[in-house]
Amino acid sequence: VGIPSIDSDNKLFFLLFNGIAREAGSERFKTRNMAAVSRQLSVLLSSLNDHFYQEEMLMLEHGYPNLDAHKRQHNKLLEATAVYIDGVHAGTNNIEQLIFYIGCWMYGHILITDKYFGEFLSDKRKYGNSIQHARLWQDHPETGKHLLRTTDMVRDVMKLKL
Question: In 10 A of CB 53, how many CB atoms?
Fold first, then answer.
């Protein structure tokens, strides 16, 4: 997204996620309980929660106009993942659905929503806190629309039954 601290965290999240996906797809996983994957998911979600807080503080500091909508996306991931994990433990969801949901959310959120924040900061570096920068983002045709695309994509993924 062009913000070193966020890019570094995102690389770590994908490494953690890929490890979880590999573990969940392994033959070993099929013959034991979900304890190892649950622990790995807890680490990922805890790391994401910390990252979300730092990212939101950065947005607040720079006056990002879509902070509230961005925060809602963060909260929805954490809430929906908790529900999915409960469903996996109860036997109403399978681990593949959970992995697919988190993967789609991460890719969509990072490649669309976080990238948009990176563009905002890049423009801010270019224009500073000028009226020109404020107008550029106030009148930007994509303001808010990127959030809807990501939210719609994740909602559609949640409906899938694998």
Answer: 12
Closest CA to 38 of 59, 23, 53, 51: 23
The residue whose two tokens read 């573990």 is 23
Q: What is the pLDDT of residues 120-133, one digit of tens each?
A: 888 887 777 665 55
Rounded CA separation 48/55 (Å): 10
Distance CA 92, CA 87 (A): 5
Question: Considering the entire predicted model, what is its pTM?
Answer: 0.73
Tokens of residue 91, six digits: 């036997």
Task: Return the exposure string of 31-40: e unless at least 16 CB atoms fall within 10 Å of the residue's CB, then b.
Answer: eeebeebeeb
| Six-digit token string for 87 | 């469903």
pLDDT under 50: residue ranges of the chain:
139, 141-144, 146-148, 150, 160-162
> Which of 32, 115, 3 has its CA nearest to residue 66?
115
- The confidence score (pLDDT) of residue 58 equals 92
Q: How many helices (H) and strands (E) does the chain have?
A: 8, 0
